[in-house]
# Entry
Amino acid sequence: MTLVVRQLGLADYSNTWTAMRHFTDTRTPDTPDELWLLQHPPVFTLGQAGKPEHVLDAGDIPLVKTDRGGQVTYHGPGQITGYCLVDLKRAGLGARDFVERIEDALVDVLVAEGIPANADRDAHGVYVLRKKIASLGLRIRKGCSYHGFALNVDMDLDPYSRINPCGYRGLKMTQVKDFLREDTPSLEALGLELAAALEFSLYTPRGEQPD
# Structure
């Protein structure tokens, strides 16, 4: 199986959410899986079971209540948002395995860039030195997924101080730039690395993957 990758640039959150749901509702068993890579204008999103009290001061940044899992997070320019439109039933993946394979792909790319990243299988996401660098939030409907992950690359992290990120009070956020500085790859280049790593992680049986 292959993953169709679409680089969508800067895109409105609500319009993209509508497009994801339409894609999922109209796909057939033969529809190829897709990965949408994009950035959003500043927006807070609150997951389906998210608690409004984790939004401390949205201020002038819009807040959208969405249908993904998880609590509240922030999207903004300089962050790679990857929407994983995958037929899990066809790929033979359970929900937990799917999440862990996304985390593994993110970790593999960051480690290859020299960043000591690790996945937390309990507080899902990817961390570097106890700071969160990538968040995950997914929706699975009729065996197919949408929504996905957000990797902080080179962005303004201040809006995270207006929320309890992912529902954790005091959670510190970080980004690729904090570790690579002048050597930070472009979002487009890093997105392609992520796409290749994700395709390998999703479609290669665990027994054939290196430890």
Observations:
- The helical segments are 13-26, 88-91, 95-112, 177-180, 187-203.
- The chain has one domain: 3-202.
- The CA atoms of residues 45 and 64 lie 5 Å apart.
- Residues 95-112 form the longest helix (18 residues).
